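quick one, 298 residues, struct below
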Amino acid sequence: MEPRLRRRRSRQLVATFLRDPGSGRVYRRGKLIGKGAFSRCYKLTDMSTSAVFALKVVPRGGAGRLRLRGKVEREIALHSRLHHRNIVAFHAHFADRDHVYMVLEYCSRQSLAHVLKVRRTLTEPEVRYYFRGLVSGLRYLHQQRIVHRDLKPSNFFLNKNMEVKIGDLGLAARVGPAGRCHRVLCGTPNFQAPEVVSRNGHSAKSDIWALGCIMYTVLTGTPPFAAAPLSEMYQNIRDGHYLEPTQLSPSARSLIARLLAPDPDERPSLDHLLQDDFFSQVVPEGGPTPADPVPAAL
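---
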């Protein structure tokens, strides 16, 4: 207990008012709206325009600070160059002695994980709606030769119009000439592809696998791979062995099976994904969106 208390006390507090030395803008930090292993996210207001943003805060100190600093620099270099309606917009970044700050698009309807916490599952029409946005954003990322490497419901954000946005590019990486990343084990275990757990390297196909895990999770309420111990789950991932969700439509089960093919070459490309039978029900532009499942964050 005592070492943990010391770590909490050593964490530097984020000031209520923050000034970007580059632009001269002054912001007011609001309430905490999310946190991860290495960062925290707050609501942020521009004092001169009253525009609202999300502020991602990463501490600069502590053990492993050089490695973390390099990770944050890579995230900023990648994210700041991205411009797509289904990617969380990056507006600015600055730093002080204690923290690095990223000013991002504010998504008032929180994340798909928040939706699942309230609803437990989504309907197939809702999944079709969300996946069209996710595929559009992910296709853009892959066209930039970027693999996200940590796709999961908590990294899919929803704006006031219930448009889905891919966010948290902290583990994203640019692939090399062969279309692969380093052979490292990273990401969230339940959503890691067979080639990732086997340390054969990431590729765009690893993100496709994650989409299969996400589709299964949002339709059934549980991830396809969640066994304990971890070694057993990893073996199930390598084998592509999961409990078939018989309660779903044949087209949903078929698409999940294609996405969760252990061989990356057998998974559908993003260009062909939306041509699958599961997406045959076309929703016109400006058509209906899922009902608002959670209130907007204040």
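Residues 1-10 have pLDDT under 50 and may be disordered.
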